[in-house]
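Quick one: ATP-dependent Clp protease adapter ClpS from Arcanobacterium buesumense, structure tokens please.
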Amino acid sequence: MTYVQWVFETYFGMTPTVARARMLTVHRQGRAVVASGGRESMERHVQALHGYGLRATLEQED
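--- reply ---
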């Protein structure tokens, strides 16, 4: 789990507190929103997370 926190801190620039909270959300609920924005940038984030060995998906906001 610390690896996921490290990725969130390193890639997204989250503070350790925020990264840990998001990591725990993923651990407990199976998913968490870690970024939002335009489609192209979100697709880059998904690809980057895949490069770190993490599962990530893109979902349109309601």
